[in-house]
Amino acid sequence: MSPSTGEVVIAARGVWKKFTKTLRRSMVYGLLDLSRSFLGIKPDTTTLRQNEFWALKDVSFELRRGETLGLIGVNGSGKTTLLRLLAGIFPPDKGEIMIKGRVGALIAVGAGFHPHFTGRENTYLNGTILGLTRQEIDEKFDDIVSLAEIGEFLDMPVNAYSSGMRVRLGFSIATAIKPDVLLIDEVLSVGDRSFRAKSIKRIGEILEHAAVVFVSHNMTDMARVCDRSMLLQKGEMQFLGPTDQTIDQYVQLTDREYEGQLVTGDEVTQLDCQVITKHLSYGENLELELSIETSQPIELGACVISLAESDTLQAQRDVAEYIGPLPAGQSTFKVTLGPTYLKSGTYWINVTLLTPSHKSTYAHHTYCDSFWMDSPRDFGVAYQIPVVYVARQTPSHGR
Fold it and tell me: Which of 131, 267, 307, 396 is a plausible cystine mate for 315, CB 3.0–4.6 Å?
């Protein structure tokens, strides 16, 4: 989605937010702060007390009408906290946030719904909370029900709805008010592919007059929706820039969290594999550079490359049944696998070198490197990836 030169509708300047680790301590501090307020003493929110921690640290950015900002980071990095501050649920402890106009927020599945009210009743209740008159809700009602796809369940209690149905209804109401700022936190991942496609289309329509802050662990949706993205880590802004660059930074960050393990023997002393292109499109070839260091000449059998998403094996391929003799020293290969038809996600490379009999292992290296797959598929795996070629580069004969 293209960037905009509209007016600034969100401005965050030096925002800090702290929380307490235990509920009991939080209640004690709350009572103390309330007592001080009654006495005209302003509580000190700028320093940490016992069992407190900073959930956000010095976050600053601006967002203009017509722009989308993605928030990327591992769980606990501060994404939802920042959204809640933007929604006005919490005040910042330091810094300031300026919001211009009406805010629509979809931060939690079913938030704001009365579980015993019907979908129809909750539509009017939520619309009223968001500032719409009954006449305005009447005018938008058919559009809300159509997008939510709950027509036959409209007069059932919401507590009988699936999480996906509640998300669809919440999103439809939040976007029907034509907000100046729309905040969306991960909940779209609960919907099916059809609803996500319709939601992304609706977000595009909203961008004609609004700004959107979007949180998702689906990097494909991030790339489609967001002009810019912010990478958060332990409450701190690590990077702010174009979404594709932010995704690359995120992949590098998660690489560091997955510590690889190298197991070698007497013959092979070093084994490494690097991804040449870190951001792959659906159907694109995966190119790797394989580096092997040996203490003596060996006969190398199969090279097995497997891909892992988190801790789950996704695809495995014998690169070659027989590679052949390697001299002592370092040998480098360029391996091309493809086309890759994997679902969206981050994948790590595991490499195993086998003897010609395939009964013994020379070396094994897990989590050597990673790449991000941008795919229209959100499910399924590819168990076999064809090998295009293995090209041996000029080896070093001895050290």
Answer: 307
